[in-house]
Amino acid sequence: MRGPLCACQAGCCAALASVSAKVATSFDASRTITTGLIGILRTTIGLDLIPYAEESTMCAQLLGIAGIFLFNTVMWVLFTKSMHLCSSTLEATAFNTTSNFIFTALVGKLLFNEHLSLQWCLGSTLMVLGLIFLHQGGSQRDTTIQSKHLQGGVEKDMKRKKT
């Protein structure tokens, strides 16, 4: 179970890298985030940073550039680890891609108020169902291989005792 978890974490890091890229390259996206943060700071602790909105936007873009490198690095480390821990590289890739897809959409909806259509929701549901079937099939295959391996070991022991 650790392999799929690492793959999902890698997918989340990939999604955060893409959000960082959007913040780094889109003035409107970085302005949306800084405006929201400035509003939160003003209402919670009374800190008024509206005169520094332009500078805050530029800082957000610089942090976005750093986030691209940071999140991509962590994503590759986790994805490589997941390929070692999963029953197949297909399983690791599927979990990574699906979690990336879903997490990107959720962050896009929360931060940038992007629209998620019914078609997107149905497609995501099908992807998750496919992951469930893929993971169950891999678990059953591993159990079968282990039982055959153990059975082969028992047969070899019985042959040794007869001779």
TrEMBL record:
Stretches that traverse the bilayer: 62-79, 116-134
The UniProt record lists the keyword Oxidoreductase: no
Keywords: Membrane, Transmembrane, Transmembrane helix
Matches recorded under PANTHER family: TRANSMEMBRANE PROTEIN 42
Name this polypeptide is given: EamA domain-containing protein
